[in-house]
Amino acid sequence: MALFRRHLWGGFVATIITIILVGAGLWWMGALGPYLTLEESPKLVILICVGLLSACFPDVDTEGKSQQLFYRLLIMVDLWFLLERNYKAAALLGFGAMVPLLGKNHRWTHTWLAMLLVPALFFLVPMYLNQTMHDFLGICYIISVAAYASHLVLDGYIGKTFKSIKRLFIGRESRRPTGSKR
């Protein structure tokens, strides 16, 4: 339970920071205006939900709170797609829901590649299939990757990767002779 809460809070913080950074980028490009309308405000709640779900996804292959939350929300979204007669999106979401069944351990869900590809399945592939570009889905992808990364950081996977990369470029730290002072 403690890890679940930690990942939710980490995902929430990562989501808020990413929303602020995306907003700053849109402001800098002069494209923030359309997003500041009352009609667009519910999308903020959607972005936060995307972030929280993405922060929970790496643990969805094991029984627990993350799995329960993820699949309950996924079923509701899938039913909504079916009621809207958006069968492509419903099928894609169903396919995405089966992806965690590919492995029963944390190894594949706790990788940089999964961090980039799993959100792409939910947000970039629909744009490709519909041959359209949606700014909001692109923003959802960025938020999802950031929240997913927060999970990996909190579990310590990214820190290990940075140390490995540092060793590649800098090399192992040389050992100081015994008795030497800094």
Q: Overall 3D geometry?
A: globular
- What's the total count of β strands? 0
Radius of gyration: 19 Å
Query: How many distinct folded domains?
Result: 1
The helical percent reads 55-70%
Figure out the total of helices. 7
Order of helices and strands: HHHHHHH
Low-confidence stretches: none
What distance lies between the first and last C-alpha atoms, to the nearest angstrom?
Answer: 44 Å
Main sheet, how many strands, which sense, barrel?
Answer: none
Class from helix and strand fractions: mainly alpha
Give an overview of the whole structure.
With 182 residues, this protein is mostly helical. The protein has one domain. The protein has seven helices and no strands. α4 packs antiparallel against α5 and α5 runs antiparallel to α6. The mean pLDDT is 80.
Please describe the structure with a list of short key phrases separated by commas or semicolons.
182 residues; mainly alpha; globular
Task: Give a brief description.
The chain is an all-alpha fold.
Blueprint of the fold:
Elements: H1 2-28, H2 42-56, H3 65-83, H4 87-98, H5 112-130, H6 135-155, H7 157-170
Helix pairs in contact: 1-2, 1-6, 2-6, 3-4, 4-5, 5-6
